[in-house]
Amino acid sequence: MEKLQAIAKAEELISKVRTLVLATQGLDGYPSARIMMNAGNKSINPVYFTCQTGSRKTQEIQKNNKASVYYVAEDNSVNVWLEGEAEVTRDKALREKLWQDYSPHVYPEGVDDPRYTVVVFTPRRLRVSMAREVSEFELNG
Predict the structure, then answer these.
(1) Which CATH code of 3.40.50.20, 2.30.110.10, 3.30.2310.20, 3.30.390.10 fits the domain covering 3-138?
(2) CA-CA distance, 140 to 52, in Å (whole number)?
(3) Backbone φ and ψ of 93, nearest 5°
(4) Domain limits, the chain
(5) DSSP annotation string for 24-92
(6) What's the pLDDT tens digit per position in 12-43?
């Protein structure tokens, strides 16, 4: 699979899945993975997540920003791995952009809720597995 095909396939999958796995390096040095909700991402660059300010994942990212994101199709026909760097931000424009119908249930004080934080993930490497073919590409250029 060529790089542009792989990116297109990855973005097609990303726009459809509801949940994904975000992995970071835990504070104890061991891998730390968790299920995350797709925050309406349609592109692989960047990928956004919303989370609680001061959560374990934000602490891990602030200590070591290297992370991995894994998406899988419901029928397991396509798997997408992204490796890159994450950053934690409270940028108001991003929080407004990512606000969704269910957000008030998690952040009852609204967009300015002090617990509402965004993780911005910038991938450096893409790996796509489809029909027993695995393609891997660097994305920094």
Answers:
(1) 2.30.110.10
(2) 29
(3) -60, -40
(4) 3-138
(5) EE-TTSSEEEEEEE--S--SSSSEEEEEETT-HHHHHHHH--EEEEEEE-TTSSEEEEEEEEEEEE--H
(6) 999 999 999 999 999 999 999 999 998 889 99
